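Running this now, will post back.
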Amino acid sequence: MRVPMSWLRAMVDLPEDISTEQVAALITEHTADVERIESIGGEVSGPVVVGVVVSADPEPQKNGKTIMWCRVDVGAGLNAEGHPKNSEGAEQGRGIVCGAHNFTVGDHVVVSLPGAVLPGGFEISARRTYGHMSDGMICASDELGTGTDHTGIVVLPPTFEGRALVPGEDARPILGIPEDVLEIDVTPDIGYCMSIRGIAREVAQALGIRFHDPYAESPVEPTDGPVPVRIDSPACSQFITIPVSGLDPAASTPGYIADRITRAGMRPINLAVDVTNYVMIESGQPLHAYDAAKVQGTLVVRKASQGEGLTTLDDTERVLDPDDLVIADDSGAIGLAGVMGGASTEMTAQSRDIILEGAHFDPMTVARAYRRHKLGSEASRRFERGVDPACAHAAAARAAQLLVELGGATAGEPTVVGTVPAMPQTRISCELPGRILGLEVSREQVIEILQASKVEVTAMGDSLTLVPPTWRPDLVDPYDYVEEVGRKIGFSQIEAKLPPLTAGGGLTRAQHDRRAALHAVADAGFVEVISLPFIGDSDLERLQLAAADPRRRTVRLANPLDDTRCYLRTSLLPGLFQAVSRNLSRSQEDVALFEYGTVFLAGEPARAPRPSVAHRPSDEELAEIAAALPDQPRMLAGVLTGNWLPDRWNGPAVPADWTHAVLLAQAAAQAVGVTLERRSDPLAPWHPGRVAALMADGATIGHAGELHPTVCRDFGLPARSCAVELDLDALLAAAPAGGRIVALSSFPVAKEDVALVVDAATAEDQVRQALVDGGGELLESVDLFDVYTGEQVGPGRKSLAFNLRLRAPDRTLKDAEAAQIRDAAVAEATRRFGAELRS
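Update: finished.
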């Protein structure tokens, strides 16, 4: 919200000696943050004066442009010596070249004389241009920093504050500069501060001074008028129209109105539109003006029909939703209520008869409509925060009065349909604000603050019955009033205190295991990153996912930040690939990254209910909401490129490969007491012959291995990059309660080594599992320590060398027992895979 200080002072009797900075500090202390103070025209210095155009001769140029060679009277004391004199011997004024054509002889203009400095450090000096010595500059609003218009120069009215302008007088007071403008960050709960009226009321209360409210009136009763109106939806509580006829289309917007709405952040258009915007900014009540000649029949406030269309003022054809609230006439929808009017009844430069509308619409209905159509406007931003329902008539009447005064129009009788809804009643204990705020706040102080906020207070002992004013829809429950008391006391007076500590149960088992797994991965040498949870169709295609792959069950975002990534992620890998690519572009080639996060897998389409906010949702409603949500497993993934260990003095570099991808999964699993098994299982985006499924308790929980060459190419990754992704929730579910603790044995271990020759296509993990199954309970561990291929084992064969550790819990194993266990393990591998014991 932009608040010009001159507008604020017009509504509040601010002390003469109070500075803008002090006002900003008060607002920040008691209401909302003032983010910036902008000084309009504050950079203008030197002689900037009123001038009267004595002559203006058009001179066409060779470049096709026509300039105006002007004589401008800037007062006897400032008219330069040596200029031509009139018949009476007086100086005719300074000669100035001007490129604008929106003025005539006799107009009052703003002239920057040599020595003046305009915004941006632009210094004015006499210079020769277009064959003339231009002795100054006639200024446009953007050159003075008072606006953005450069289509013409500023033409001043001939009078100011009831007196005639004098050539040569300082033009800055007439322009209203310098002017300080406050930029206030209005939070959604205090929508009444989206107006000069609301901010003025807050400042007046903070200083204890008088507040002039031009919109203070009692709510009006329903009244029949010349404009027929009907309300067919409870989303509109009151609708008011005032006909205004005979408006002079040529009537211009007064300078003070144009300046104020410009400094408040809007653009002047024409008198009718400017007046409605002016009143909206001042009062907080959005208004709309219809061209009366284009309205057909009765104005009806209703919900849109299925498939109904509307062309809005931005010339966009929109298909309306049945939940949209519209203003309609006999021809159909002519406006999206609280958001934007329709093009069919738009005001034009020829409009003479208009219908002013002031209404009160349901905030949520307006908010959903403008978000649904991506059509935010100044009106919708106010309606969604809550507009004073008692202000609609006063605002419309003030706009009509301004059009009568400024445009020569005649205002008719109002039509009022509907009533102002009653404000909610709340009961609180007078000690509640002090207890919640942690301050000493007396009963009398609470009552005084709330009454100053125009809350109706009925005190009965320590109980207060409260009814807020109509402009405070945010005051609903007891804690809203606690916040109100806290704001009016001052944010700086509220000390930051930690709540008292209560005994806690510590981390849950799932939290402890999750932290242990992530710490283990980081300790193994991986660096954690956090990526945005969005993917697009191109990501799914580059991953080479099959049509039936569950990772294609995407959840589409209603309002994506990037149209190329319009889904919630179904895999962590695309985000990690982007992080790796970004590192590579910065010459960081040795990368080992991991990420922990949620993925979103869409289920069967279901519509979640909208439970009431008045009470806790029922178990059935909660179950329906949960059923409508996508599956959201927590995943753990990692990507490796380059070297795992760099080239160093005591050894060559160690390239990152699939073993390090498996290392990530093993580190996480071991931290929670889970032993992972590996099986060959082709799955995109991995290389079909270089990927393993990671299994826990017989269920597949993830995959690890080398990425497919095409995937590496499409994502800009180095060849033979490796990746791992696993379901961390599934891993933690497989963890034994209390962790897996292996009992220590006091008996020595027996070691046996075996080398088995099998087909080259046989997976090492399958052979290892056969040895485990054949060895029985006394086989403590089986570890692969060598793989050999060559002439000694023959073509298409390989030798797998395993170390077997055997131990009994109650005795020392004899050599014969150890040999028997070894032979049983080898026999099982021979039965399953035709393994031969290599001599």
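The two ends are 87 Å apart (CA to CA). More later if anyone needs it.
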